[in-house]
Design goal:
The chain has 266 residues and is an alpha/beta fold. It has one domain (6-265): 2-enoyl-CoA Hydratase, Chain A, domain 1 (Alpha-Beta Complex), CATH 3.90.226.10. Helix content is 45%, strand content 15%. The chain has a six-stranded mixed sheet, sandwiched between helices. It has a three-stranded mixed sheet with strand order 5-7-8. The longest helix is centred in the middle third of the chain and has 19 residues, at 84-102.
C-alpha cells in the first residue's frame, strides 16, 4: 500500500501505522488524515492483523492539526467563512474519525513520544492503550484561545476537576504526569518506549482474533451505554457553533493559531 504521509507495515500479526511528516511534527493535514484513514481501514480488514500500533516518525508523535491546512482549521472549500451548516458537517466528519479508531475491532496502542498536543493528544486518547515516553509532552495548548474542544473524553479519563485544570490553563504535562492522572496507561524511559509497546502488542496479539473482537465490543458497548457517542455529538456541535463568522478553526483566537503554526514549524 503506497501512502504519501504514513508508513504502514505488518510483522508478527501487528500492524504499525507511522505518521510520517517528521519535519512538521506530524501535524495533521488533509493528506495525513486521508492516509491514516486508509491505514486503519487496511488493518481492520486484514485478518492477519490482530493489533495496531499508532506512532509518529521523527521527534514527535503529533503536534495537532496543521494550521496551514486541515479539515479542522481551514474554512471548507467553496466558502469564505464558517457557517452553521458547513461547520456542523465538518465537525461530524472529524468526530466520526475519532470514533472509527475507537471502534476498530482490533486493539490500538498509541506509542507517544515528543509532542503529543491538541489533536495529537486526541488521537492517543482514541486508542485503547496509550504508552508514553516519560519526557513526552501532552496537553491542549490551543484552549488558551477559548472555545470548546471537540474531544469529550477529557472528563471521562481525568475526572471533572483535573480536566478543568488542564483545559482552562492550557497546561502541558510530561508523560510521567500523564500516567499519574490517567491520560495514558503508562510511561517509560524514552529509550525503552518501542520495546515496551511491542511487548504489550505481542501480549495482545496472542488473544484469538474473534475473542479480542468480542471483548473490545463489550467494553465499547459499555461506554455507549454511558452515552459516549452522545458526548461526541454534543462537543462537536458546540465546537462547530464556535466557528460561526470566523476564518480560523474552532473558536480559537487567531493570535493563538499563529503561535501554534510557528511552533509546528520549529
Amino acid at each position: 500500500m503506497n501512502l504519501e504521509t504514513v508508513i504502514y507495515e505488518v510483522k508478527d500479526n501487528i500492524a504499525k501505522i507511522i505518521m510520517n511528516r517528521p519535519d512538521k511534527r506530524n501535524a495533521l493535514n488533509h493528506q495525513l488524515l486521508s492516509d491514516l484513514d486508509a491505514g486503519f481501514h487496511e488493518a481492520e480488514n486484514d485478518d492477519n492483523v490482530r493489533v495496531v500500533i499508532l506512532s509518529g516518525a521523527g521527534p514527535s508523535f503529533c503536534a495537532g492539526y496543521d494550521l496551514r491546512g486541515s479539515p479542522y482549521t481551514s474554512v471548507p472549500d467553496g466558502y469564505d467563512e464558517w457557517t452553521t451548516s458547513n461547520a456542523l458537517k465538518t465537525l461530524r466528519g472529524i468526530s466520526e474519525r475519532y470514533l472509527m479508531i475507537m471502534n476498530l475491532t482490533k486493539p490500538v496502542i498509541a506509542q507517544v513520544h515528543g509532542y503529543c498536543v491538541a489533536a495529537g493528544c486526541y488521537l492517543q486518547m482514541c486508542c485503547d492503550v496509550g504508552i508514553a515516553a516519560e519526557n513526552a509532552i501532552l496537553g491542549h495548548p490551543a484552549t488558551r484561545g477559548g472555545g470548546v474542544t471537540s474531544m469529550p473524553l477529557w472528563v471521562t479519563m481525568l475526572g471533572l476537576r483535573k480536566a478543568k485544570e488542564l483545559l482552562m490553563t492550557s497546561k502541558l504535562i510530561s508523560g510521567i504526569e500523564a500516567e499519574r492522572i490517567g491520560l495514558v496507561n503508562m510511561s517509560v524511559a524514552e529509550d525503552k518506549l518501542e520495546e515496551e509497546v511491542w511487548k504489550v502488542a505481542t501480549n495482545m496479539a496472542e488473544v484469538p482474533l474473534d475473542g479480542m473482537a468480542i471483548l473490545k465490543e463489550a467494553l465499547n458497548t459499555h461506554a455507549e451505554i454511558l452515552n459516549r457517542t452522545a458526548l461526541f455529538t454534543y462537543h462537536r456541535q458546540l465546537n462547530a457553533l464556535g466557528r460561526i463568522g470566523r476564518s480560523g478553526g474552532g473558536g480559537l483566537n487567531l493570535n493563538v493559531l499563529r503561535q501554534r503554526a510557528k511552533e509546528q514549524r520549529t
